[in-house]
Amino acid sequence: MNKYSASHFGSAFPVTPHELSPTRTVPSHIVPPPYASTGYVGNPPMVLTLHDEDTISRMRASCRLARQILDLACLHAKPGVTTDEIDEIVHEAIIAAGAYPSPLNYSGFPKSLCSSINEVICHGIPDSRPLQDGDIVSFDVSCFLDGVHGDNCGTVTVGDVDEAGVRLVKAAEEGLMAGINAVEPEGCLTSIGAAIHDVADSYGYSSVRKYCGHGVGELFHTPPFVKHFRNSDKCMLMPGMIFTIEPMFVEGNQASITWDDNWTAATVDGGRAAQFEHTILVTDDGFEILTISD
Ligand code: MF3
Ligand code: CO
Burial of 203 by CB count in 10 Å (0-12 exposed, 13-18 middle, 19+ buried)? Predict the structure, then answer.
């Protein structure tokens, strides 16, 4: 508990950094994204991409794989299992499918999965901390298959979680679905943030401002950057655009700090966070959720 903690939310004990296992390797037959060897990502291009049919069909496959692996990660979220063990499962399964785990060495990220527990908002690094009964944990799974990235995230409860935690997880998923339902060709990017903000308000949660959804395709993070709160980013949505929507809802204040590992983002006040993410294609008559399993 720190001086910002309020008694009516948060978990009993703050999440602390644990040990990292040695860096996992990727066999040479897997085609890696350009940053894999150096960690260097570079600035995103300033253009909006409308993807062609070939890229869209490759995105369908990559996103479907990302979904299957996310489901696998969630299945293993049990008390006593470490997030490093889940990282290993995810790493091996992505490679077995012929893909590269996108987070690995992305700007130096050390693991193949992001795992974010309780008051950790996003970009948590899998380590030797065993999941505990009552934790909520989000897994962000992304993979690079056939030249394109698929990206999705979900939050699950571990063992018995209190009602407040279950409600937070439900609200975050509802926020994502409201954002997705605001997507339409010739619609506006601002509608997505507004729809998500409405859901957060209706539950009394805050939607995190620092981290946004993003265009995704051959590059992991490109425009459009998708805010999960009311905003004035007037940008017309057009068929062929592909981007993620990935709201993070928190119990208290949305302000965040980054741990000394330079990645882990946590709430300042100890309130818990939940996140859901899909990769979305804008179509001629609405949208297609690419990160679904059939
Ligand atoms: N998958 C995350 C997203 O939703 C990005 C993770 S970057 C990493 O955009 F380096 F932390 F993996
Ligand atoms: Co994303």
Answer: middle
Every domain of the chain and the residues it spans: 48-289
At 199, the amino acid letter reads V
Residue 123 assigned ligand-binding role: yes
CATH architecture of 48-289: Alpha-Beta Complex (3.90)
Distance CA 157, CA 166 (A): 7
- Nearest in space to 242 (alpha carbons), one of 55, 65, 86: 55
Q: Is the pLDDT of residue 27 over 60?
A: yes
pLDDT tens per residue across span 140-193? 999 999 999 999 999 999 999 999 999 999 999 999 999 999 999 999 999 999
Q: What spacing in Å lies between the alpha carbon of 6 and ligand 2's midpoint? A: 30
Q: Is 215 helix (H, G, I), strand (E, B) or coil?
A: strand
Cis omega (within 30 of 0) for bond into 224: yes
277 is in an annotated binding site: yes
* CA–CA distance, 70 with 153 (Å, rounded to integer): 7
> Which ligand 1 atom is at minimum distance from the Cα of 109?
10
Mean pLDDT of 75-83: 98
- Measure CA 82 to chain center: 19
Residue 277 CA, closest ligand 1 atom number: 4
Scanning the structure block, which residue is given the tokens 């990235």? 149
SS3 221: coil
pTM score, whole prediction: 0.96
Q: Can you list the positions of beta strands (E) in 89-195?
A: 100-101, 114-117, 120-122, 136-145, 148-157
Is 246 part of any known ligand binding site? Answer: yes
